[in-house]
Design a protein that fits this description.
Length: 263
């Protein structure tokens, strides 16, 4: 009994250290959140080309109905792929291709630059769906996850996983809070902590084997890389603690790598 209590105390100390580290990472994410921006105001641009052609719709197949002269001003209102809806100072509204807006100037007098549409999508991503494969202890693991960005640096993520061992099968699920201080970078580390459930079902051929249904906590550290278009590859290392009983815990380590799709 004393040995079990000592072992549980060791597990609790490890878990406490992980939770402190995880909370510190989350606080770092909170501190990295930039201050709230002012309400978005449409940007005004001065035409530098001899003229700017306004189409009735976002495509070259739509007719040109108005021409904006050099040194006149237009206001950006909407973007659709590489087409921008603009409004002139006289109230004319039309669509202009990005190539024609490359040679315009901002109110500050500097040339206007436009990001690729794929980068805009990446920076404004909200939801991710992904799958990963790896090792849970020494056994193969498959997991699926979905996450939602609460802010530029914080996300909430739900995960379900399946481990098929030689003598038993294990299923897990957990909900995590994730901190990603460098979320606008192509290569970015992240940290997360969470809670969930752990279920282990021994093979029916085993004698006197008892199924386990326990509460679960976990802490993870990982890195993700923006691959291309709407795809992200990521790898992580996780420590799981299953609270099997009052004086008994199980500790498991997992390493996975996977692919996610964002929108």
């Amino acid at each position: 009994m004393i040995r079990l209590q000592a072992r549980a105390a060791v597990h609790w100390r490890r878990l406490h250290a992980l939770l402190v580290a995880g909370v510190a990472c989350v606080l770092l994410g909170l501190l990295a959140v930039p201050p709230a921006r002012a309400a978005h105001e449409p940007e005004r641009l001065r035409v530098a080309d001899p003229y700017l052609e306004l189409h009735t719709g976002p495509g070259r197949g739509f007719p040109i109905f108005f021409v904006v002269q050099r040194d006149d001003w237009v206001q950006l209102e909407l973007r659709f792929t590489d087409w921008f809806k603009v409004r002139t100072d006289t109230g004319k509204q039309g669509w202009v291709h990005r190539s024609q807006l490359q040679n315009t100037f901002t109110v500050a007098g500097v040339p206007k630059s436009f990001r690729e549409i794929a980068l805009d999508d990446y920076l404004s991503r909200r939801v991710q769906l992904g799958a990963a494969w790896g090792k849970f202890k020494t056994e193969p693991m498959l997991k699926l996850w979905t996450s939602y960005r609460l802010s530029e640096t914080l996300s909430v993520e739900g995960t379900v996983g399946q481990v098929q061992g030689l003598f038993s099968g294990t299923s897990i699920w957990h909900l995590n809070l994730m901190a990603e201080p460098l979320s606008d970078q192509r290569l970015s580390p992240y940290f997360s902590i969470g809670v969930g459930k752990f279920k282990n079902l021994p093979n029916q051929t085993l004698v006197s084997a008892i199924p386990v249904d326990a509460k679960l906590s976990n802490a993870s550290i990982g890195v993700r890389y923006y691959l291309t278009e709407r795809f992200i590859v990521r790898a992580d290392y996780s420590l799981y603690t299953a609270f099997v009983g009052d004086a008994r815990t199980g500790e498991y380590r997992a390493k996975t790598i996977g692919l996610a799709f964002f929108f």
